[in-house]
Amino acid sequence: ESGALSGFAHDGEITTYTFFDPDLADIYRHALDTAPGQSVRVAAMGRDPAQMILFAQGGDDPGSWHYYDFATGKRVDIGSQYPSVPAEWVASQRQVRYTAADGLAISAQLTLPPQGEAKHRALVVLPHDGPLWHDGRGFNWLAQVLASRGYVVLQPNYRGSEGYGAALTAAGKGQWAGRSLSDMADGVRYLAAQGIIDPKRVCIAGEGYGGYAALKGAEGGPYRCAIAINGISDPADYLKTAKQNAVADEIAALRADPQAQRAFMADARSPALVQGYYGSQTPAAISAPSVKAPVLLVASHYDKAVPADQSRSLRDRLQKAGKTASYTELPDCGHDLATEACRLQTAQAVVDFLAANSPAR
Length: 361
Prior knowledge:
With 361 residues, the chain is an alpha/beta fold. It has two domains: 74 residues, no CATH class; 239 residues, Alpha/Beta hydrolase fold, catalytic domain (Rossmann fold). The chain contains nine helices and 14 strands. The strands form three sheets. It has an eight-stranded mixed beta sheet, sandwiched between helices. It has a four-stranded antiparallel beta sheet with strand order 3-4-5-6, with no helix packed on it. A hairpin with a 5-residue loop joins strand 3 and strand 4. Helix 6 packs antiparallel against helix 7. This is Prolyl oligopeptidase family protein.
């Protein structure tokens, strides 16, 4: 109530907190003990800081809300983030760490099928969008869909990801089409060496930049198929569109508030930062003649971040080159696939494509 800063949160593989007050720090340690191995977020705190609402997720928990009074020991289970998903359907998630070819340590989330032994399974590599983002512990709808169909799912926090220290993020500069991709392939080799996956049954799927990574994987990599969901296929054209969108946003902001700052220049998705993140040269567009694996393109008609033309133009080029290319356009969806209908359509297209090109069993 004093308005003084009491601490700060760090969003990495799990959400962690640093509290300056030793009593708050001690209460937070008790909060962590309520869900060992999970990501525990402080959703709300009472006037008495010993009273908290916590959100826990990870492992076998898709996300659940709980009230605690650490002074009295009282606990009330409020409910699940996904109440319609039976516990026995939830695929288990765990962290793995492996070493990239150049010695860089890579952290990843591994989701295992809820049924059967995790040996010599088909794998889907699921790189995150961004690349200035990361995958942490917690429920991922697409990973869960794939695991429910019998696939092992690897979500690598390749170089360029945030949340694992400045050095890992900085190492991704200029590596969109370079070592960020090899970090993903190194994860495949790691899981094959552990006997968890069959290296001959590996596909790659991703959204946004993750879609670009998947398409580059179709040009050459340990993948028998690739799926790009609202994926970038031509980075130079994407940058041009991003600039136009940012300028339009800036003009709208300045009209609404003459004192408005050019906030988009500080935004992690801004053209200025994206251009710098590419390095000295914008990575090449996907070369249709170079694509060796079957490709599925899923595009959202109302995607303002990565326009559907990125997928449509690649579809046309792939078909002209005689490549195997499937295309699904989502008529009422945006980039984030925020609605149930959008996710169901995407999941169906992805599952059908994988069943045809890399069956789980």
